[in-house]
Amino acid sequence: MKQAGDITLHPAYSCWMNFKTYQKSADQSIKKYCRFILTKISSRVVNTAVNELSAAIEGIYHIKPREISENHDVPCIELSIEENNSADSNQVCGFTIKHINEKTTDKIVISGTDECAVLYGVFRFIFSLGLGKSIDNIQTEQKTYNRLRMINQWDNLSGDIERGYSGRSIFYENGKITKNYARIRDYARLLSSVGINHIVLNNVNVHEEETKFITDKYLPELKKIAAVFSDFGIRILLSVNFAAPIVLGRLSTADPLDKDVQRFWHETANKIYSYIPDFAGFLVKADSESSPGPYTYGRDHAQGANMLADALRPHGGIVVWRCFVYNCHADWRNRKLDRAKAAYENFVPLDGRFKDNVVLQIKNGPMDFQIREPVNPLFGSLEKTNQVIEFQITQEYTGHQIDLCFLPSLWKESLDFDTAAKGKNSLVRDVVNGKLFHTSTGGIAGVSNIGDSPAWTGNPLAQANLFGFGRLSWDPALSCEDIASEWATLTFGSNVATVEKITNMLLRSREIYEDYTCPLGIGWFVNPDSHYGPNVDGYEYSHWGTYHYADLKGIGVDRTMATGTGFTGQYKNENAQMYEHIESCPENLLLFFHHMPYDFVLKSGLTILQHIYDRHFRGVEEVVELQKIWDSLQDEIDPDIFQEVRHRFELQLKNAIEWRDVVNTYFYRKTGIPDEKGRYIYP
Amino acid sequence: MKQAGDITLHPAYSCWMNFKTYQKSADQSIKKYCRFILTKISSRVVNTAVNELSAAIEGIYHIKPREISENHDVPCIELSIEENNSADSNQVCGFTIKHINEKTTDKIVISGTDECAVLYGVFRFIFSLGLGKSIDNIQTEQKTYNRLRMINQWDNLSGDIERGYSGRSIFYENGKITKNYARIRDYARLLSSVGINHIVLNNVNVHEEETKFITDKYLPELKKIAAVFSDFGIRILLSVNFAAPIVLGRLSTADPLDKDVQRFWHETANKIYSYIPDFAGFLVKADSESSPGPYTYGRDHAQGANMLADALRPHGGIVVWRCFVYNCHADWRNRKLDRAKAAYENFVPLDGRFKDNVVLQIKNGPMDFQIREPVNPLFGSLEKTNQVIEFQITQEYTGHQIDLCFLPSLWKESLDFDTAAKGKNSLVRDVVNGKLFHTSTGGIAGVSNIGDSPAWTGNPLAQANLFGFGRLSWDPALSCEDIASEWATLTFGSNVATVEKITNMLLRSREIYEDYTCPLGIGWFVNPDSHYGPNVDGYEYSHWGTYHYADLKGIGVDRTMATGTGFTGQYKNENAQMYEHIESCPENLLLFFHHMPYDFVLKSGLTILQHIYDRHFRGVEEVVELQKIWDSLQDEIDPDIFQEVRHRFELQLKNAIEWRDVVNTYFYRKTGIPDEKGRYIYP
């Protein structure tokens, strides 16, 4: 199927919606239902659903379905909205795909709780074709776990993307908002196909010109982009500058308790909604890494967020308020300071003070998107506050979309973590969706990994992360295996061996990346600024609060209550005890929580030092293994995609070798102890 | 005296030409000669000399001298050009200041070998007034040591200055050449007053737009700037892009043996000289840090440089060719690789192959402007090649004009180094001025430290480096003491106690900076990119070839012939042996040449480790001492200058503390050995 985008189409451009691949997988017995699409609903989003279904059918079965609004007793696919029997206006979005075969009726019915749900049902049906499901297996009933399934674009008006590794922005170029709506439409389609329903259009770090997005200067054009997303059931948010009242030259203060400031934001909200009636709200990074915020005026984050929330409430908008607040001028000399404690300390005292249309956006871990971190202890500690968990789809610390790193493996750990906040089985995913503490909304947010690169995500295999993010945001109970194999099948076809190989590559990739980078949860062995490649001491004496404290005898951060920073005490009792004690602390987080001697013996029987050596040698071997598997797929994969990924594996191997050698040499120089298996470590 | 610049004048703007200060120092008995300036010469530069002399007299004695062209038997100052009795067209620039008092004649005669020399004589006379010399002491006869006394501006057309710490460029702003000639004129005056006679107007890294400087697009404006310098006897050079024939879109190659390329450069030279008849030539950074060069075409540097020299020869121009050529993609694993060896290896084989109007510009040390390095072994090894030694006046690695660091102390070491190339007393200064090997030209080049900051050099005390550079380029035999106290007197007046204090601060400053930064010649403990502040491992695993190899037992680079990289063998025999052996190697360069155990005992009786601790503690104490001395001068110094320097000392102290703590902790963590004097080192 041809894509709408106006760029030269890369074979990976259609991502997991590759109907050429679907052709081979799709069950031919379903074709007969595809001649007619029956629907009585008239709405923008259902219209999209019909178009998407038609395009898919055409692409897969080479027939052009007819749209009908009356049942003519012919096999068809019917799209309908379920009648809402409950009085619950907060009904959860869901859809049903049924095969009805009785008397004169033989049809597939895709029904949803609302127009968006119908669209999701259609996409799910299309996926079923790609997955080769038979008519007997396509039936399903699904409800989303989360109200908020949100993408954050870190795109700047300049066209740069902060921490972007996939080319330039598709939204902005050279200081202007793009008019290439075709590409944006293609993106909206991809997002909607995996269930995303919100997108923040600009970087959380709001620079001067972007501050004007909320004015007449930019709203007419943003409205057009919003309309594209709206067709796909996706509502837009904007990142706003807390100091906008000052920066836009209207006021001398941004104090949230100031009447003029409040009026400014009310007027701003009114203006935005006059352009974009389904505008979703604001995302705010305040008092963080030098961005302005309520602290400037002696106010707290609740006062700051609530003020914005009041302005948006009349329109049904929300404020998404980031909790990435910490002291970025730390003193490395002071071992009692702990950046990991900051989010909890800043926000737990405010629990219960946030208005109902405020949502806190909390990074999955207490530090910053490292390859392995414990869950942020804010989850489970905020009982009266709406929350979303923030993941980073873009591979800032995890390989820049050069190295393969399937991130659902990491995200699942967070989502399935038992906070023990209300007894056993108090999972993070039930905290953020509001179930555990009966909060009104919540969900999952992810920092996008796409740009204008021909395959969207630079590395075509990194599409699996965008796919997986969407799927998990819809249903966090999905397994990584299912996500990976579903993605591989939809993208590369249903050849069992191929799917199995790629699935295995994906599932192993996160641990491989961990093997050759940062051991045992310590993190931060990375080059400052770029965050790619090794630099063990790169952050060690910096002001960022990110240390490992390696000396000749040991390494790690003592975060215990007994002798350390006390961070472990931010977890609920069972978890606090688990992390507090070396015996019960999960070994893959040992150095996150404890300063340990190199000769401490792990459960594997290896010392920590030998574990570091082993993993770094193994990491490189594993990358070679990944290369080999990929090379074995040459005949199965489109040659362009094959070569592009192949090239990235070459770079990954180079990177892995550099990591191995730098890290091993670093610890060899620190300890003087050679590898016990006699492998060469550079002196 | 009012300055010509159009900026709000900072009290430090006039630098060492501060006539308000001179007023108090100047001998009143000289005043009587100052009513008349007698000269029969009519030339641009002598005209400048007359103007400068008049302005100085007016500023100092408040009288306006009359210019006369006949001797009327009144006391006067006479400016004249000495008759050249020798047939030597290569006569060395020099001047004489004489007091003639016989019969009816009572005058001061300032005569020079040429018009520029007259100007230098006038400036020297003016300085004498500022130094409070009596009529009996002003007599002097001076010849310059060096033909080339050259400033390199690393200014970009954007207005940025590479490694500039004094604001923006005074030559360029926002992609345009400035029209603020007044400020450039003031700069020319300062340079000329200390004997500078060449200036390179643009960065050695020639970016795309600057490549067009040699075209009609920019030459009309560069011509105007050249004219300003010309008035002060300073000739301009331009840094050129070796790939200009390609970049300017004329040719598909820049191969120096290609006829079209040769024609391109001939035509370019013709064009430049049609605009700027006294144009001095080109500065070229080729095949260095990714800049293009002859290697691209399988040619060597002699072929590259000679091709350009041929183009310039008809006009009397020269090619200054930088020797900063090394592999910047080194592998840290390979301890036999040694960046220090690169310049020698690249250029010694070419000795004798460069044309007579080519001059090699060689950095003082073999690495890159570290606080302490040995002399570059190229000096003394090139016997048939014109050379200039390159110093960095701008404080890239030496404190960014925040920290006080009087660099003549460092430069003198290089200039006075005995290369042993032709027996004892084969000093570097005699290599570069051409005396030792009878080469035809040579001298000293320095990377400028000025910008549009109100005091020119950011830190007003950094003016001493510009002054000292000029003075040394004129006469490298001057002592640091003399330079420092002359500068202090001219700048701050002749109060003996004040001058002594400031002189001592300057003379101590380089070792203080060394104390709290990199010990024993090792270098590179600095933050990559910025080159300010500590980062001991910052370059340790990089591709820059700049390592210290610290492990738990020792530190340093083995550059011996016996067991190391063999770099010591690039020195002439005595020096090679001196550096080769630990016993004879100067201790302040010990770690540059040898990998040493921490417990090695230095002549001081301290181990290397304890030496590192001691020096870092001492460095901070000494900065506190500098602060105290400066504070004691509050009543002696203009309040604006006082406060500005005071603020910088506060920043320097912060920097010194950070260096002390990071370096000491680094080695404490490496060794586990505490300070033997019991001072606290952060763990």
Q: Which keywords apply here?
A:
alpha/beta; 8-stranded parallel beta barrel; disordered N terminus; 6-stranded mixed sheet; TIM Barrel; 3 domains; Chitobiase, domain 2; 34% helix; homodimer; Alpha-d-glucuronidase, C-terminal Domain; 683 residues
3D structure, described in words:
With about 675 residues, chain A is α/β, with parallel strands linked by helices. Chain A has 3 domains: about 20-140, Chitobiase, domain 2 (2-Layer Sandwich), CATH 3.30.379; about 150-480, Glycosidases (TIM Barrel, Alpha-Beta Barrel), CATH 3.20.20; about 520-555 and about 595-670, Alpha-d-glucuronidase, C-terminal Domain, CATH 3.90.1330.10. Chain A has 18 helices and 18 strands. In chain A, the strands form 4 sheets. An 8-stranded parallel barrel of chain A has the order 7-10-11-12-13-14-15-16. Chain A has a 6-stranded mixed β-sheet with strand order 2-1-3-5-4-6, with helices on one face. Chain A is globular.
